[in-house]
């Protein structure tokens, strides 16, 4: 195994292929091309003397050796990105880059108008938006800030409680006109419902809440939360949605309002070492204010 002169770009491509799930997705994330990422993986395998992925019609699947290497390689990627962000702007400057990790719903449905407002106030601060339902590790500096729906337990992380963003059940007016509106909880299982496929945290929440719905009860299953919303908006069934977002959807009607309301806490999180980094603190304070207004609607 020749590890003395491994090119960092090879490791970076390795990390992104595992993180994104395919060569093409990694290429998009790295603003590269699929053949280039493929050559990086082949070169890295040659230099390490091990197979990192098995290839099939379904795509690339990481080997056991690759999964063993991934945590350390990912930590290196986080440190590298943190270094780049630090070089791009001094700590006491309102310039530079801040990496913000958020879920799909927050990143696509909530943040864009807020970031527009932030950019008008602070045009010299660049924002890297990492949109994923997989939590990036702030301890390893994979992100500077994160908006999460659970409180972190690590002492090195500063968590600001924003408030509760409640979730209710909704159906499109066309769906409810065709199939009727459930009046009681026991009627819900006779309806077509929309929810996660392998998002086990979400599935456990559904099962343990008043809903008591299991994976097999769901008619349409997909882990991508934006896809769930689109299925709901197309009238394919009844699904969950943050009440604040649903207020902007005139074609959606809330169902079982008296029976179902899932409280979802919202936290804004950063590493304690970034408290004095002005560009991070500026975005942190801005998001505390704007997200507080959102949950109070």
Automatic annotation (TrEMBL):
Keyword Transcription regulation part of the UniProt annotation: yes
Family: Belongs to the LysR transcriptional regulatory family.
The name this protein goes by in its record: HTH-type transcriptional regulator CysL
GO molecular function: DNA-binding transcription factor activity; sequence-specific DNA binding
Keyword rRNA-binding in annotation: no
GO biological process: DNA-templated transcription
Domain of life: Bacteria
Residue intervals of the HTH lysR-type domain: 6-63
Short name of one Pfam family: LysR_substrate
Protein encoded by which gene: cysL_3
């Amino acid at each position: 195994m020749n590890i003395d002169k491994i090119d960092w770009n090879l490791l970076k491509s390795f990390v992104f292929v595992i993180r994104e799930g395919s060569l093409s997705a990694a290429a998009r994330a790295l603003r590269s091309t699929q053949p280039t990422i493929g050559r990086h993986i082949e070169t890295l395998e040659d230099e390490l003397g091990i197979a990192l992925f098995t290839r099939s019609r379904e795509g690339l699947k990481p080997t056991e050796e690759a999964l063993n290497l991934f945590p350390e390689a990912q930590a290196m990627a986080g440190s590298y990105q943190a270094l780049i962000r630090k070089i791009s702007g001094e700590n006491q400057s309102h310039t530079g880059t801040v990496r913000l990790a958020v879920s799909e719903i927050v990143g696509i449905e909530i943040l864009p108008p807020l970031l527009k407002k932030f950019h008008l106030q602070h045009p010299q601060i660049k924002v890297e938006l990492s949109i994923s339902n997989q939590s990036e590790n702030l301890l390893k500096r994979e992100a500077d800030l994160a908006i999460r729906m659970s409180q972190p337990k690590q002492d090195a992380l500063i968590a600001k409680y924003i408030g509760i963003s409640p979730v209710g059940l909704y159906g499109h007016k066309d769906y409810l006109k065709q199939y009727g509106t459930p009046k009681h909880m026991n009627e819900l299982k006779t309806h077509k419902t929309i929810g996660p496929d392998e998002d086990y945290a979400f599935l456990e929440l559904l099962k343990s809440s008043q809903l008591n719905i299991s994976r097999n009860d769901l008619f349409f299953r997909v882990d991508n939360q934006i896809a769930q919303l689109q299925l709901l908006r197309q009238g394919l069934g009844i699904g969950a949605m943050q009440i604040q977002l649903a207020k902007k959807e005139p074609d959606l009607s809330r169902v079982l309002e008296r029976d179902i309301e899932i409280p979802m806490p919202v936290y804004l999180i950063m590493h304690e070492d970034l408290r004095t980094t002005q560009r991070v603190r500026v975005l942190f304070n801005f998001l505390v204010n704007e997200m507080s207004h959102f949950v109070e609607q």
